[in-house]
């Protein structure tokens, strides 16, 4: 198996046909077809379904595509690590952010990268935490912001902030009438709209409730932050989230963010890297900058409900 075969296969999948991939790669289509056939023969499986409309991955092809992408990224990172200067790091770095963190961290980080390291191309991907952990483990991303749930032992983790979760509701909701806080029991007694268990915030809510002898019930599950906010504004219920994803709505008076007590709910936000895949100079520089930007946001009060740890 050769690296060029992996590049050819990924290009065919990305462009949806052998002919388009051949044009992009500047390779004759018969040669591309031959390399694909040799790859399938070596693996002993069919990777693609071919038709007049193009190509589609088989189940085996879907698995192989993810591994091929990861291998090609690690090769590119290895090449970059050899030529990069520690003083002027350059190259591409991919950072994964959970949906509930990106509003607080993404734009300040992009601004800081452009100012500090103009030769680094930062690629941000926004995913659920379970998907980010899987991508980091496979080497498809360089860094990921995750939540310390006690199961991050396979990663090198640097604590960033401790983030408070609050009860978020429409400004005219009865729970918000004349109150700045409420108990966790009262919060759980309302109709809650929460992300699914694959999101980092939900397991934290469930574990805190169990420890207090409480439980969620009748939860409406919505995994999109945008749709979740629309549902709150439509009066369908409230949620328990950090303030960052709804800060704009709170500031314009459309929503309220009430503190939760007896007990409070918080989560530790950490920056994770692989223990097995070395960081390039560029990725190491981004890693340091993520920590600095997070701490600066806390110090300036711009990351509401978060404190440096």
Automatic annotation (TrEMBL):
<protein>
    <submittedName>
        <fullName>LysR family transcriptional regulator</fullName>
    </submittedName>
</protein>
<feature type="domain" description="HTH lysR-type">
    <location>
        <begin position="1"/>
        <end position="58"/>
    </location>
</feature>
<comment type="similarity">
    <text>Belongs to the LysR transcriptional regulatory family.</text>
</comment>
<dbReference type="GO" id="GO:0003677">
    <property type="term" value="F:DNA binding"/>
</dbReference>
<dbReference type="InterPro" id="IPR000847">
    <property type="entry name" value="LysR_HTH_N"/>
</dbReference>
<keyword id="KW-0804">Transcription</keyword>
<keyword id="KW-0805">Transcription regulation</keyword>
<keyword id="KW-0010">Activator</keyword>
<dbReference type="InterPro" id="IPR005119">
    <property type="entry name" value="LysR_subst-bd"/>
</dbReference>
<dbReference type="GO" id="GO:2000142">
    <property type="term" value="P:regulation of DNA-templated transcription initiation"/>
</dbReference>
<dbReference type="Pfam" id="PF00126">
    <property type="entry name" value="HTH_1"/>
</dbReference>
<dbReference type="Pfam" id="PF03466">
    <property type="entry name" value="LysR_substrate"/>
</dbReference>
<dbReference type="InterPro" id="IPR036388">
    <property type="entry name" value="WH-like_DNA-bd_sf"/>
</dbReference>
<dbReference type="InterPro" id="IPR036390">
    <property type="entry name" value="WH_DNA-bd_sf"/>
</dbReference>
<dbReference type="GO" id="GO:0003700">
    <property type="term" value="F:DNA-binding transcription factor activity"/>
</dbReference>
<keyword id="KW-0238">DNA-binding</keyword>
